Amino acid sequence: MPASKIQANWTAVAHGSNQITRVSSVTISQGGTLATYSADGDRFPTVVVNLMNKPKATVTTADTASVMGHNPGTTANFTATHKDAKGQAGGDILYVLSNAVVENVDTSGDHGQFGTATMSLLAYSSDGTTNPLSFTRA
User: Fold this and answer.
1) Number of domains into which the chain is organized
2) Residue 2 resides in a domain
3) pTM of the prediction?
């Protein structure tokens, strides 16, 4: 059967060699920002361009210890696989965020509820032109 083209659940989530389990949410962002230009009597932008991208990711897990051990500033590749909803071959999406630097880790837990921790990562390009964010169908 062909891939469903619908994703559900995350597997193989890791920052470097540190596997992250019990993942409830992953967010991958291209990090695009737009700059506008106007001058003279312009009341609206006359040029809108994308001058900079800052790819980033966040991961939320119930395995709080697995991410609380990541210190801000730690750099490694971040990988995450978003599974095909029907488990079909070729339907998974593998994301790789190269040079992913841990920005911060927050953890919380309410009384009578499961605790969670969220780690945020910001990536950089080694040469300034190569996008550190890539994805492939697997």
Assistant:
1) 1
2) no
3) 0.92
